[in-house]
Amino acid sequence: MDFNFDLNSLWFILIGVLLTGYAILDGFDLGVGSLHLFMKGDLNRRILINSIGPVWDGNEVWLVTGGGALFAAFPHVYATVFSGFYTAFMILLFVLIFRAVAIEFRSKQPMQWWRTAWDTAFSVSSILIALLMGIAIGNIITGIPVGADKEFTGTFLAMINPFTLLVGITTVSLFMMHGSIYLIMKTEGEVQAIVKKWTNNAVIFFVICYVSTTMATLIYFPEMVQPFKAHPWLFLLAVLNMLAVANIPREIYHGREFKAFLSSCASIAALLSLFAIGLYPNLVKSTTESAYNLTIYNAASSQQTLNIMMIIALIGVPFVLTYTVSIYWIFRGKVKIDAMSY
Amino acid sequence: MSVEILARIQFAFTISFHYIYPPLSIGLGLALVVMEGMYLKTKNPIFQQMTKFWVRVFALMFALGVATGIVMEFEFGTNWATYSRYVGDVFGSALAAEGIFAFFLESGFLAVLVFGWNKVSPKMHFFSTVMVSLGSMLSAVWIVVANSWQQTPAGFHIVGEGLNARAEITDFWRMVFNPSSVDRLSHVLTGAFLSGAFFILSVSAFYLLKKKHSEFALKSFKVGIAIALFASLLQLVTGHSSAVGVSKNQPAKLAAYEAHFDSSKSADLYLFGWVNEKEQNVNFGIAVPKFLSYLVHGDFNAPVKGLNAFRKTDIPPVNFVFQTYHLMVAIGFTLIALSLIGIFYLWKGTLSEKRWLLKLFVLSVLLPQAANQLGWFSAEVGRQPWIVQGWLRTSEALSKAVEANQIIFSLILFTLIYLLLFVLFIFLLNEKIQHGPMEADLVPSEYEKQKMNFQNN
Fold it and tell me: Using CB atoms, which residue from B100, B438, B440 is nearest to A312?
């Protein structure tokens, strides 16, 4: 379907931007968490946690705000997906809670068992969050059973199938790659040498997952590719994505860590753009009957609400970007452990 | 048990547990602004030590507030999907605004507050503390606006019928400043100041009692008691104005607060009592006769709308609302008394010798916590059976796709996890308090040292 330049489409883009911001920012700290148990030694693990220490909480706010924006702009999607995926969302909440408190609690006691327990909670919950989010994206690609009354009619277990699991694992691999590159920027010496090895493996892991997911999507869900057939120039995005990934090892080889990280950010943005283009103008596809799809039109708030929220976003987003950039600037450079550290 | 009861229990449980933390961070945030401001003004290192000690405690509370807060945002969608469809325009907008205007501000500057001592100048650090405090209050603004709209909906119209009915915004500012927003916001914020202030008073009184960290404790006590006196007196004003608002906008709730049944009569103001809902009277009660009529109408003999004027299906459970409301009011007056006694002995200079009073202050931390919870119980249960007063019933607001066994599963897990979190929170808090302020925190930050060296050379 062709792009309509209207409020509903602008909100589709804006929520896409919020979730992309989330994937890029929380993506690296989930990645650091996923890799955490591979690092040995208490001091080294502290360096990992403190590399994300000042920023992980702000990164999670992108998810909270993305959820709020979805609630305000497309309440039917928020209601259908959150109630339909009840059990999945509850598990997601539990791991989000455990991750947050693991980061806060770990450093508060010196006992070995205490630290190992919270290290495990931190790492396992990071992996599960990435996996669950990937499975959710997988379900948006495959579609879910939604009836005429916009209500979900499926079950939790039906949401997990080989394809959605593949998307879940791809998400984990993407965040591991992204997180390891972030760690190269934030560490030095021995720890950095270990992390560099991780990055090589993570890039390979991600490329394998990415190629598999792309093939599976082309074979089983060709409708995702329809917009690219209609507008061949969109294929440039897929090329850009591959170039960005290929650029990562090159930048690391030349010691340009920040550029490697930017490449990784670009590849996440390109991936989510490909997903969004394939989805538009649907938000949730119904496997029951395509007339029951939740689209940016039949699931939206009133035009006036979209308008008011757009004004709020235009006022708020410049502030948000200013804080984000300032905080990352203040905490730039390699991690140093001090009395206030985790 | 039905989906409705289970969903309500889960929401009540998760919100009550969550609400232990935000008032503490709002109140403590304000105290941090005062302490660090004093440090910048006087350059007395004890104020830096105080700020740093309370920041560590603040960070722990903040983390638990964030972890349990994200649950609340998700639960509207998971358990109250029909409500979410109905009010997405209004309620969703307030939540999104909270994210954009409050959470980013709060979490961004929190990083500087906790980890930035050696990264930025003392003035910039103070600015961050002010922003964190402002952010915590702004998040209260938006969430109380959203909740007040449920109590006194305004600035909207209903589009569609039956299952497709939805509330859509017609006037954004009337929605934000709906009839109860300002009263309830001031009441909530003042309650939060009290909970932070009495937390500081409790820990400081503990040190004074143990004769440890005396200077630190006495200075902290002064900051705490100043906020406590100001907030406990202010709470009289905001509480009164909220009650008058309720009498105008939610007469059934007010009638339940005071167990007033007969509309043709003037109404009494109870100090306490036990409501017999069947016989429609109050047992063992002591009341100021006709005083409610005076408070609401300025006339002792004016009749006040009673519970009998409403259909049985439109009124809340009376005794529960009556008890929670009166306990909250009683605690409010106790806090005023405690603040005044504390100030008196502080002024006389004999506070450290009054061990009975210090013991009372150690326990006093529980009072504002209890009052905050009880106040919300009476406000939210008093709104029943409505989820949006007069427009949507709680029983009609549930998720249609969720079954009872799914909620039982999540409720059991929430109970276990929150119990664990609470035990760990108390354990870690106790460790921090036992450990006390650090000597190292009396030394200026690296940033200041470098600046001083620079000036000396």
Answer: B100
| Cβ distance of A101 and B421 shorter than 8 Å | yes
Query: Which of B340, B361, B392 lies at the terminal end of a domain, its last residue?
Result: B392
Which one-letter amino acid corresponds to residue A76? H
DSSP per residue over A24-76, as a string?
HHHHHHHHHHHHGGGS-SHHHHHHHHHHHTTTHHHHHHHHHHHHHHHHHH-HH
Residue B287, SS3? strand
Q: What pLDDT score was predicted for residue B378?
A: 93
Mean pLDDT of chain A: 90
Q: Where are the alpha helices (DSSP H) in chain A?
A: 7-35, 42-52, 56-73, 75-84, 86-106, 112-142, 162-186, 189-220, 226-230, 235-253, 257-279, 303-330
Distance CA B102, CA A270 (A): 29
Within-domain flag for B20: yes
pLDDT at A301 over 90: no
Residue B292 has pLDDT above 90, yes or no: no
Find residues 37-56 of chain A whose CB sits inside 8 Å of chain B: 53-55
Domain residue spans in chain A?
7-330
Count Cα neighbours of A157 within 13 Å in the Cβ-side half-sphere.
Answer: 0
Residue B192 has pLDDT above 90, yes or no: yes
Contact residues, chain A, for B115 at CB < 8 Å: 53-54, 331, 340-341
- Alpha-carbon distance A76 to nearest alpha carbon in chain B (angstroms): 5
Q: What is the pLDDT of residues B370-390, one digit of tens each?
A: 999 999 999 999 998 999 988
Residue B398 within any structural domain of the chain: no
Tell me which chain A residue has its CA closest to the CA of residue B67. Answer: A97
Q: Is B446 in the same domain as B428?
A: yes
For B79, other C-beta atoms within 10 Å of its C-beta total 27
State how far the Cα of B329 lies from the Cα of A146, in Å rounded to an integer. Answer: 49
What three-state secondary structure class fits A196?
helix
How far is A333 from B31, CA to CA, in rounded Å? 32
Of A79, A317, A319, the CB nearest to B84: A79
Two tokens, residue A160: 């997990």
Mutate which of B51, B107, B109 to disrupt the A interface (most A C-beta within 10 Å)? Answer: B107
pLDDT of residue A147: 84
Same domain membership, residue B430 and residue B344: no
Separation of alpha carbons B205 and B221, rounded Å = 7
Top residue of A17, A46, A327 to mutate, by most chain B CBs within 10 Å, is A327
